[in-house]
Write a sequence for this structure.
C-alpha cells in the first residue's frame, strides 16, 4: 500500500474510533430511568424518592409513605415543556375549584395550605399520591416557586376514590363524582382508572357534565404493567365515557412509556415521567409517573382556561385544550397556547388562528436537550479527531519538503 493510501486508511480508522467512543452517550440519553432523567443543564438527573400510586395490599399493617428528606434543586423537564413560567403571566386559575378524585389530599401540605377542602377521609392521604397530584394542579411550590403547579391560584376539593391503600372501586369513584358535582366544581380530575364500566359511574359522569364541569380522567391505571406478558388494549373508565377528556402519560421525547398499558381513545398526552412534586408530610419532594400525573397537568390547564374564559362552556374548554395541543400521534398538552390562542368558529376548517403574540410550542425537555448536546459533541469530537489525524499526516511530509509545495520539492516544477 502506498504512503498516501496508508495515511487515508489511518485517518478513516481514527474517525471510526472517535465515533464509536462518542456515540454511546447520545444513544442512551432517552433510556434513563424515570427517577434519573437528565437535568435541564444536561448533568446528572435529580435523585428523589418515588411517589407510589398505591400501597401494598397484602401487608398486614398500613405503612404510609414517609416524608421525603430530599428537595429538588432545579425545575424539572415537565414544567419547562409546558412553559409554566410564561403561562403564569397570563393566568393562575384563581377562582376555580378543581375536584381531585384519588387517594385524598393533606390540607396543610406545603404549597397548598389554605386552598384545600377535603371531605371526610379525603383529608388523610396515607399513600401520598393525591397530595402529589394536587401540587401539580394548584401548588405554589412553597419555597421552590419554579416548582409551582399549572394553576397556583386555584382551589382543590379533595375526594376519595380509593381506600386507604390506594385501591380504587366504582362505588367510591361514583360517590366522589356526585360530591364534586354537588359542590359545583368547575373541573373534575379523576386520577384512577377502572377496568370495567359501571352504570352508576356512567350516570355520575353524565350528571357532572350536565352541570357544566370539565371532566378529565387518567387514560390507564397506575402503576404501569410489569413483567413480559402482553396485555391487550382495552378501554378504562371513566376515561372512556363520552365527553370525558382521556389523558395519557408521555416521556420527554413525546412517546408513551414502553411499560404503559395499551388503550384507545386518548384525547391528550401530557408529561408523566420524572415529574417533581411534594407530598402530604414534610417539605421534601418526590418523583412521580403515570397517566394520573398527566391528568393532573391537564386539569390544571383546564382551571387556567376556565378562569381566563369564564363564559366558555365545559365542551368549549375541552375543545380548546385539544385544538391548541401540539400536533402529534397523540396531541400533546400546551397550556400556554390553550390560554392565549384565538380559535376560529367551531367546526371551521383550517385550525386555530394564533394570538397576536406569537405562540410557539417549545420542546425544552431535559432529555431532548441532552440528546441534542450529545449529538453535537459527536460531530465536534469527530471533526477534532480528523483535524489531528490530518495534521499528523501532512505536517511531517511538509517538513521533509522544507515547507515547499510538492511540485517544487524535486526541483522539476512538474505535477
Amino acid at each position: 500500500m502506498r504512503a498516501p493510501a496508508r495515511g487515508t486508511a489511518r485517518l478513516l480508522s481514527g474517525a471510526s474510533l472517535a465515533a464509536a467512543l462518542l456515540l454511546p452517550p447520545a444513544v442512551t440519553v432517552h433510556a434513563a430511568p424515570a427517577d434519573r432523567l437528565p437535568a435541564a443543564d444536561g448533568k446528572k438527573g435529580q435523585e428523589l424518592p418515588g411517589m407510589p400510586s398505591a400501597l401494598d395490599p397484602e401487608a398486614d399493617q398500613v405503612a404510609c409513605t414517609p416524608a421525603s428528606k430530599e428537595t429538588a434543586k432545579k425545575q424539572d423537564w415537565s414544567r419547562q415543556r409546558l412553559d409554566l413560567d410564561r403561562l403564569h403571566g397570563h393566568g393562575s386559575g384563581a377562582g376555580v375549584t378543581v375536584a381531585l378524585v384519588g387517594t385524598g389530599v393533606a390540607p396543610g401540605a406545603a404549597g397548598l395550605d389554605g386552598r384545600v377542602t377535603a371531605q371526610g377521609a379525603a383529608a388523610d392521604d396515607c399513600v401520598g399520591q393525591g397530595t402529589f397530584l394536587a401540587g401539580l394542579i394548584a401548588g405554589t411550590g412553597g419555597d421552590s416557586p419554579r416548582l409551582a403547579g399549572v394553576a397556583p391560584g386555584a382551589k382543590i376539593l379533595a375526594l376519595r376514590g380509593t381506600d386507604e391503600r390506594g385501591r380504587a372501586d366504582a362505588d367510591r369513584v361514583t360517590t366522589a363524582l356526585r360530591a364534586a358535582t354537588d359542590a359545583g366544581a368547575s373541573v373534575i380530575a379523576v386520577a384512577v382508572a377502572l377496568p370495567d364500566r359501571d352504570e352508576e359511574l356512567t350516570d355520575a359522569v353524565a350528571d357532572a357534565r350536565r352541570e357544566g364541569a370539565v371532566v378529565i380522567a387518567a387514560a390507564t391505571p397506575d402503576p404501569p404493567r410489569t413483567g413480559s406478558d402482553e396485555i391487550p388494549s382495552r378501554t378504562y373508565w371513566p376515561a372512556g365515557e363520552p365527553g370525558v377528556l382521556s389523558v395519557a402519560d408521555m416521556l420527554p421525547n413525546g412517546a408513551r412509556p414502553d411499560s404503559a398499558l395499551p388503550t384507545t381513545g386518548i384525547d391528550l398526552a401530557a408529561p408523566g415521567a420524572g415529574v417533581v412534586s411534594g407530598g402530604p408530610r414534610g417539605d421534601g419532594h418526590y418523583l412521580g409517573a403515570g397517566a394520573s400525573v398527566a391528568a393532573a397537568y391537564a386539569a390544571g390547564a383546564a382551571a387556567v382556561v376556565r378562569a381566563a374564559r369564564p363564559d366558555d362552556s365545559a365542551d368549549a374548554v375541552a375543545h380548546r385544550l385539544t385544538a391548541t395541543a401540539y400536533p402529534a400521534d397523540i396531541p400533546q398538552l400546551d397550556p400556554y397556547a390553550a390560554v392565549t390562542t384565538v380559535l376560529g368558529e367551531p367546526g371551521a376548517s383550517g385550525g386555530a388562528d394564533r394570538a397576536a403574540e406569537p405562540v410557539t410550542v417549545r420542546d425544552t425537555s431535559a432529555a431532548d436537550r441532552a440528546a441534542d448536546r450529545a449529538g453535537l459533541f459527536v460531530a465536534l469530537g469527530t471533526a477534532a479527531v480528523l483535524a489531528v489525524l490530518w495534521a499528523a499526516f501532512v505536517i511531517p511530509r511538509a517538513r521533509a519538503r522544507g515547507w515547499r509545495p510538492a511540485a517544487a520539492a524535486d526541483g522539476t516544477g512538474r505535477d
Q: What stands out?
A: The longest strand covers residues 97-102. Confidence is low (pLDDT under 50) at residues 1-43, 345-382, 407-415. The chain has two domains: 3-40+367-408, 77-363. The first helix runs from residue 3 to 28.
